[in-house]
Amino acid sequence: MKLLFQIIRPAIIALALFMVSTTVTSRIANAAEVNPPPTVEAQDKSLLDLYSDGGWTMHFIALISVGTITIITYCATRIRSKKLIPPALERSLELAMSQQDVSAALQVCEGDSSSLSHVMKETLTKAGAGVEVYSKADLEAVAAETIFHEETKFMLWVNMLNAFAAVAPMLGLLGTVSGMIGSFNQLAAGASKPSDFAGGIGEAMITTAFALIVAIPSMLAYFVFKNLLQSIVGDLAYSASNLINRFISGSGVGASSDEA
């Protein structure tokens, strides 16, 4: 009998513990149903609310976003092949340069503000100033100098996109550091609830997100317009060289200096 009791004693203890745990669990469940915990509904925040929660660095990020949009609009309207190398202007210059009519070519350039007109105007004005013979080397040297100036003029704006893409994440990081400092100050003051840290953490995350939203399109636009400008500058150099060859291959004024 004693041996039988020792065998079934662990089973009796386990059954008793199971019954006690079941009873306690049911009572806790009933209490939760009678007094349910208060639920916090998620609030939808507007863009203005997010801007306000982002802190003071959001003002600088907003300025960079406005500058980025402005420069992208400028580059999209100006850095275009038809704007910098108008087909109608190129045909008019081909006719004038083939006839070696310098005055007609300069007159055509005066009525246009494209890069091609600037290049040919400077080429004919500088290389022909005070000399009677236009040498191909002089024309190509002045054309290359003017093309470099035109490329630099537009790259100034394109490089601003690269600067904005680099500065925006740094401002976002600054906002992140500012928000975390605010959260640690709350912790040092004795705050212990999650809601006490929500403001600082929200500022840290919002500024980072908005900074990346500005930086990513700015970086993409930088590479797009940089490659586009390089391609157009290559076409501009080819067009200028073609016009110079047409001018040199003519008669009269286009004779080489050795022939003179």
TrEMBL record:
InterPro entries linked: ExbB/TolQ_transport (IPR050790), MotA_ExbB_proton_chnl (IPR002898)
Residues annotated as signal peptide: 1-31
Keyword Transferase: no
Membrane topology: Multi-pass membrane protein
Coiled-coil ranges (or none): none
Record's GO cellular component terms: plasma membrane
Organism superkingdom: Bacteria
GO BP annotations listed: protein import
Classification via Pfam families: MotA_ExbB
Subcellular location as annotated: Cell membrane; Membrane
Record domain MotA/TolQ/ExbB proton channel: where: 118-234
Keywords associated with the record: Cell membrane, Membrane, Protein transport, Signal, Transmembrane, Transmembrane helix, Transport
Principal location: membrane
Transmembrane segments: 55-76, 163-184, 204-225
Similarity annotation: Belongs to the exbB/tolQ family.
Protein name: MotA/TolQ/ExbB proton channel family protein
Native organism taxonomy: Bacteria, Pseudomonadati, Verrucomicrobiota, Verrucomicrobiia, Verrucomicrobiales
